[in-house]
Every structure is written in C-alpha cells, then in structure tokens.
Known about the structure:
By secondary structure, the chain is mostly helical. 67% of the residues lie in helices and 5% in strands. A two-stranded antiparallel ribbon has the order 1-2. Helix 2 runs antiparallel to helix 3. The longest helix has 24 residues, at 74-97. It is flat.
Amino acid sequence: MNPNQATSFFKRLDWFTIIIYLLLVVSGWAMICAASYSYDTEHLVTPGSRPMMQLIWMGLSLILIFILLTVDVGWLESLTPIFYIVMLGLLFITIFVAPEIKGSRSWLVLGPLRLQPAEFAR
C-alpha cells in the first residue's frame, strides 16, 4: 500500500462511527469489570476471568474489523452459501453436543472457549 492509497483509505472511514463503537466497547468492558469486581485488581487480568475473556474477544474483534476494512469484501458474497451451511451445521451439532447449562443447550464448550452458534447465525 503506497502513501496515497493509505491516505485514501483513512479518508473513506467513518470516524464518528468508529469512535462511537470504541466508546461503547470500552464502556461495556467497564460494566463487566464493575459487575464482576472482587476488590482485587489482579482479578481483572487473571486468565479465565470474565474481564480478561472479554478483553480477548475485544482484541479479536478489532483485528477482524481491521481486516474487513482493508480487504475488498466482494469475495464474501461468493462464500455466503458455505457460511450458511456451516452455521446450520453448528446449530444442528449444538442440539446434541452442547452441555446443559441452566436448562438450555445453546452453548458449545471448547476448552476455555464458549460459543453460542445462534449469535453467529444471526
């Protein structure tokens, strides 16, 4: 990417929306910290704690957003049938594989990672 392309890329971005998004993400993380705070600041960065897991998801989403903003997403339209089939498969697998959590079988547990395929399917 040459300097002219980089400045063109940054001019195309809707900075107001990006700033609002970042403010919402940071305030959401602050609310999670407030709801799970145990008067011990080490708890906020302990691996496996809710605030730390949320930080990991925030970082992954920022990387994904950056990739989607820099790549031409026309190829995404050609992959939508594959994504649709994968999502249907995940939803079907969830019925049989997911453990019962509070009377519901809606979460796939993969080690420390918990996914709710219905959220991705939306």
